[in-house]
């Protein structure tokens, strides 16, 4: 199997750009030495190589089946979850007291990059299991922690998140699954949940569903939502075994375009009035708890766009280097052999676009994970951690959306590099294109996140979060200005930052008039603008580190070309992608409303 | 089944914008009255309704199989080809003497819009059959016409075009299939062809392959390529029956991402030295002949992007009108019922984008077909027909590429409107997304067509063709300037036309220096620029006609809202799409080369 990610790039990001060794100075991470981070990635590569890659195609062709109420998944899923559990990697980032290893999340994300590029669908199982466990550890009772979370951490059981209902997709306010209080303090759960990833399977003895439901009589909207642990099997009377069917029925399985190896389930809770749920934390606070898992999952979806795009990039790069076709545009001599397609400018453009998206998206995501680690290191409650928390909250939505949307485009370009072959099952690109397509829908569509960013993220606390982010960006601009080669790009970014601020002010002036429809109508374009500008910053940061290495070190050619390639790709991003901001800004400051009904309804014919 | 195309829009395009009734003044079309065009579309709708729609999903789930060297396709393919043959619609545009009905190609394209939106994969069978027949009628001997073409016209047999070889995808210069001359004037064909659509099936007694091959000893490159008729079964000794196996072997069948109902074959000719081919026209002129069929097929691929996007648009429009979710941004009262998603600005934006792409692409394609009809009407050899031929030659490549590339994007937005449901097999969007993805690859990738447009189309005859096109655009701008509501858009288009000319001059100045690599490096972006500007013109034309109708006619509300919707969508195109030109022009006039190797090779890591 060809290369699907670049270890050299992961090392560059972790060691040179983010300098993760610095994290070990915090007491939270003090048990680590930098070479232990390398070992995590080495172990990951082994799991990817032995289990994940081999099952990528076969688990797509043989998708999960729902037979007699029970889902069967590809047998390698079990091997994968077991290997991850055995290596202590499902919940590696958790605190020691919760069965974790206090691994920096940025290193964990690098591990996910390796696993996801090998088999993106399998990674869902461990991601959801860790997220469920973390939710219980954060907000659940000691009993819930002991009974459920401890067995998720090891991979003995797996978890799922149950939010979406048939009548309430993006609108969680309208969740109607109901929890009826019982005299023993438990609840009877009744309702339908749809699109529940890994919601049923045959790889573990139990599945722990984290379910949003409304306690009978609770207030309308998000303020009346509570969170419950609802296991597939609950404990028997003496609590010794979990073998009582908890009335969670696999009503249906969705046949999906891609990511087929992860079953997406339609689950029915309490069809026989016998589904017991256990309240997590306080009543009516469920959605705020769930946001923790959702935010983790959102970065995970951004990773999904990135690692599938990475696998697609390396597949098309390999193909472009080996596939002869046509001749150079300056040399049409038919006597000569055909040239490799990588030598055609248009193919180079497609490859550079992919590289720019993959490494830019990864950089943005690792930046977020690094902020998360700074929060862990400094202590969540500390004053010093606050700026990181604010930036993380702001950027989670961008770090989910940019890699998802651009990952789809990048994989599409990868397929195009293959020409007709890319459209066939003989190469992995068509599967990757099907797999990656979900990323702009999972965990909140691009539309929802865009409303979030503009309607909430940039305005909260008087715009404190974007101000902090812009300060960070200005630091990079100032540093880049000290290098002649980077100066023009620093200037471009500064200009775009100014443009972004101007556009934001314009939109906020509409919001101030109270017209939310007009204010948010093009939130999607604002997200695109924000994403491009943020990734331009990430590329400048990478170029600075590359430039410093080229100047200060005596490098072998393979190493200097790595850094030169970084600078080249940064330039590509600025010359081909950043320029799109102008059109976005034009539209965002254009006051002609075309998607908002005013006097009359827009007619579609 | 929901609406998949708009008959009202087809009538608008044919009758009001292009005024096809005028064509009946030409002697070539004199047997038609306008209501006969309506009847063609009515008959098409019957075929679509009875055969095509019902088989759309099932022919995807049960894809063609290669069993014992013979391909079996979905049984409804046979019904479809028979119905088309019986209705005389396979070759309806052909001259009477060739078994056709001299139907204007623009009406035929409208028929294809109806069929293709119902079942895009089936349409390939009749399209390839008509193209093969037309090639023989145009360049073949009387014997070939009688023996083969006449039986293609009726749908008794079907045709295929065999260009691509394993070592020569986009590079036809490198075709190596060989034709060995025999003493009886025939040739023995030997070689491999790949991705041959409808290259084998079980719906007809014979398949007539139109094969590009090199006569033994022919010159290198495209100047040594000849065209052959190679039937699956050739005639027996006395010529009474076609029952002699002609050594065309189905070596393999490609499993594709989409358009699964059309088998894509790997064919081996002459494995037993027994594949007889019949030369079409003169030796070594094969590629120029084939260009006729390729150009027809290119417009057909543009239609493919358009009709799949049309079906996706109407599916998502229907869904958006029926799916309640969330509340209006200016009214978050939870006591109220959820609103339909069509009321959210972001969903409206996605729907308007789809509508703008579908109706803009269709307009561009019908413009090209109308030029084709003007050529037929005026007579191909006449002086008056020349401008139309020049514009058609220039724009075929744009009318293939814009609808293909933008059709992919539009279907993608349609899927997004459905959210998670769009990703499942419960709705047709995921299939449409898989189907449409091939359009930017079929009949020359976007990269190849972009080289064609910039490297050849705009420069031929001292740029005569773009000059003619610009004159046409200026006529529309002048007319639009007479309406207050349209004037601002006419001005925008005039500005963009000036920008396009400036960019073109800049690029030609690089070409003048002889550096083809630098000249053509961003041909792909030039194509995008050219396409957006062309479709902006098409939208202005439609808006002018709509505005005239609104001013001069006393309309019922349903009719006035049709026209208002046209003007609204034109505005949407200008405010959201045309603005992208600025970034494209910026890059196209930016002299920093990033995809061309100069001193050193760009390193990808």
What is the distance, rounded to the nearest whole angstrom, between the alpha carbons of the first and last residues of chain A?
49 Å
User: Biggest chain pair contact, residues each?
Assistant: A-B, 100 and 100 residues
Mean pLDDT of chain A: 95
Question: What share of the residues of chain A lie within helices?
Answer: 40-55%
Give the structural class of chain A: alpha+beta
Q: Can you tell me the residue ranges of chain A where pLDDT is under 50 for at least 5 consecutive residues?
A: none
H/I helix tally of chain A: 17
Output the strand order for the largest sheet of chain A.
4-5-12-7-6
Topology of chain A as a string of helices (H) and strands (E): HHEEHHHHEEEEEEEEEEHHHHHHHHHHH
Structural features, described:
- The structure is a homodimer of 605-residue chains.
- By secondary structure, chain A is α+β, with helices and mostly antiparallel strands.
- The first copy, chain A, has a domain at 445-591.
- In chain A, 55% of the residues lie in helices and 11% in strands.
- Chain A contains 17 helices and twelve strands.
- In chain A, strands 4-5-12-7-6 form a five-stranded mixed β-barrel. Chain A has a two-stranded antiparallel ribbon with strand order 1-2.
- In chain A, a hairpin with a 5-residue loop joins strand 4 (178-181) and strand 5.
- In chain A, helix 7 (286-322) runs antiparallel to helix 8 (345-378), helix 8 (345-378) runs antiparallel to helix 9 and helix 8 (345-378) packs across helix 16 (557-577).
- Chain A is globular, with a radius of gyration of 25 Å.
- In chain A, 60% of the residues are buried.
- The model of chain A has no long low-confidence stretch (mean pLDDT 95).
- At the A-B interface, helix 8, helix 9, helix 10, helix 11 and helix 14 of A face helix 8, helix 9, helix 10, helix 11 and helix 14 of B.
- Chains A, B: Belongs to the acyl-CoA dehydrogenase family.
- Chains A, B: Residues 160-270 form the Acyl-CoA oxidase/dehydrogenase middle domain.
- Chains A, B: Its cofactor is FAD.
- Chains A, B: Residues 284-451 form the Acyl-CoA dehydrogenase/oxidase C-terminal domain.
- Chains A, B: Residues 470-592 form the Acetyl-CoA dehydrogenase-like C-terminal domain.
């Amino acid at each position: 199997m060809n290369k699907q990610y670049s270890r050299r790039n992961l090392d560059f990001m972790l060691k040179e750009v983010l300098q993760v060794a610095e994290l070990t100075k915090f007491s939270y991470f003090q048990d680590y030495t930098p070479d232990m981070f390398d070992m995590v990635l080495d172990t990951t590569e082994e799991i990817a190589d032995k289990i994940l890659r081999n099952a990528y195609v076969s688990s797509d062709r043989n998708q999960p089946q729902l037979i007699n109420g029970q889902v069967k998944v590809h047998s390698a899923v079990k091997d994968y979850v077991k290997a991850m559990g055995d290596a202590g990697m499902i919940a590696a980032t958790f605190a020691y007291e919760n069965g974790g290893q206090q691994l920096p999340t940025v290193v964990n994300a690098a591990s996910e990059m390796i696993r996801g590029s090998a088999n993106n669908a399998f990674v869902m199982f461990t991601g959801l299991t860790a997220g469920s466990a973390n939710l219980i550890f954060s907000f659940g009772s000691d009993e819930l922690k002991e009974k459920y979370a401890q067995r998720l951490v090891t991979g003995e059981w797996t978890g799922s998140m149950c939010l979406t209902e048939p009548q309430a997709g993006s609108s969680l306010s309208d969740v109607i699954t109901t929890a009826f209080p019982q005299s023993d303090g438990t609840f009877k759960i009744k309702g339908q949940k749809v699109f529940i990833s890994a919601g049923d399977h045959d790889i573990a003895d139990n599945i722990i569903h984290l379910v949003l439901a409304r306690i009978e009589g609770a207030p309308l909207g998000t303020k009346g939502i509570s969170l419950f642990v609802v296991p597939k099997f609950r404990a028997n009377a003496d609590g010794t075994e979990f073998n009582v069917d908890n009335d969670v029925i696999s009503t249906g399985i969705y046949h999906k375009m891609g990511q087929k190896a992860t079953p997406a389930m339609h689950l029915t809770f309490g069809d026989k009035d016998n589904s017991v749920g256990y309240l997590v934390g306080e009543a009516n606070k469920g959605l705020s708890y769930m946001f923790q898992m959702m935010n983790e999952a959102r970065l995970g979806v951004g990773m999904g766009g990135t690692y599938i795009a990475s696998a697609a990039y390396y597949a098309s790069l390999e193909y472009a280097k080996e596939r002869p076709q046509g001749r150079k545009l300056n040399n049409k001599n038919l006597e000569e052999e055909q040239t490799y397609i990588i030598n055609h400018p248009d193919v180079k453009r497609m490859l550079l676009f992919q590289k720019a998206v993959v490494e830019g998206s990864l950089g943005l995501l690792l930046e977020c994970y690094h902020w998360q680690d700074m929060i862990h290191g400094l202590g969540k409650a500390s004053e010093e951690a606050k700026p990181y928390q604010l930036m993380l909250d702001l950027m989670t939505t961008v770090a989910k959306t940019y890699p998802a949307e651009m990952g789809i485009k990048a994989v599409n370009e990868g397929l195009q590099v293959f020409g007709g072959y890319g459209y066939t099952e003989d190469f992995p690109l068509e599967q990757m294109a099907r797999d990656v397509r979900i990323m702009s829908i999972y965990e909140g569509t691009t539309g929802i996140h865009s409303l979030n960013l503009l309607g909430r993220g940039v305005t909260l606390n008087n715009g404190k979060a974007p101000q902090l982010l812009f300060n960070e960006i200005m630091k990079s601009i100032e540093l880049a200005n000290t290098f002649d080669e980077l100066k023009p790009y620093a200037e471009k970014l500064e200009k775009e930052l100014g443009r972004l601020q101007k556009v934001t002010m314009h939109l906020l002036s509409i919001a101030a008039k109270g017209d939310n429809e007009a204010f948010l109508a093009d939130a999607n374009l604002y997200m695109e603008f924000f994403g491009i500008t943020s990734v331009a910053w990430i590329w400048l940061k990478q170029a600075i580190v590359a430039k410093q290495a080229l100047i200060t070190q005596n490098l072998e050619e393979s190493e200097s070309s790595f850094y030169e390639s970084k600078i080249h790709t940064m330039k590509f991003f600025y010359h081909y992608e950043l320029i799109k901001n102008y059109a976005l800004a034009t539209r965002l400051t254009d006051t002609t409303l075309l998607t908002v009904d005013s006097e009359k309804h827009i007619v579609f014919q």
